Amino acid sequence: MDYPSRVLARVDELAAGLGPSLRGPVAALAANPGKSLRSGLLAACVGDAPVDPSRMVRLGALVELVHLASLIHDDVVDRAALRRGQPTAHTLVGPERASLAGLAAFALAGTESAELGAGVDMLVSRTLSELAHGQLLDIERTFDTAYALQDYLELTERKTGVLFQMTCLLGAAEAARPEPEVAALSLFGHEFGIAFQVLDDCLDLTPGDLDKSVGTDHMLGLFGAPTLAALAADDSGALAALLLSPDFTSDDLPAVRALVQSSGGLDQAMELAREHLDRARAALDDVAEDARTGILAILAKVESRL
């Protein structure tokens, strides 16, 4: 069994250890994995360093489990109907049980990190704290059409960047990389995570994405980078008026997309994603070739979405 398959099997094993009433939502999402981007990035950061294969699998499963738990909570807050082409946990078992399942998965990740060692435990704990803070900030900004794009980027650091940063740091620590490389990989994870989220915001305005309900964040007052950039550029106030209309429905989403595009918001956000991807790539100049090659391959896959 190869590394990605072993990681997924370990996630399934961990999910099976949850209580009967909570394992269902976690196991269902674990059984419908995405691209395993984070565990793949961890392995790339390790590169050719001699490491314990079983620890590598556990670390890969750990980062995927944290990601999975965050998705369950995100979907509850965003009231998303689909995740990876399937009904979200809260639509199947209700928001209360889904929230508890996500919390149980976070707790399980904490237990797993403690067993893997003090350094892992501390890093995971800090990351979970930042993720929770980011989720709270996301809730607090709802329907704020004056929310600054820079503030949103700081929120994105907590919601997305810290998990990629944690992934890179776990890989660097496992490979015992020297301090300059650790710092470079930390910076890469930070910049890559921001770019990834901004790019995801852009794709959220693209009709035909079957992975999730397109543009529905706008109905909850959760505006991504393209919309925030468009709001700042729209002197007419038409976009803000539309988004804040009490009669706003999903039928208005095409009009939102048109206004965001015509005001240059989508182009500005795409350029912002490119800037952070460029910074991420530049950080790799200080990383040894055995890790840089694999990380660049992952970076290229993300860039292909631009």
From TrEMBL:
It comes from the Bacteria. Keywords: Magnesium, Metal-binding, Transferase. Gene3D superfamilies: Farnesyl Diphosphate Synthase. Its cofactor is Mg(2+). GO terms for molecular function: metal ion binding; prenyltransferase activity. Coiled coil: none annotated. One of its GO terms (biological process) is isoprenoid biosynthetic process. Pfam families: polyprenyl_synt (PF00348). Belongs to the FPP/GGPP synthase family. This is Polyprenyl synthetase family protein. The lineage of its organism: Bacteria, Bacillati, Actinomycetota, Actinomycetes, Streptosporangiales.
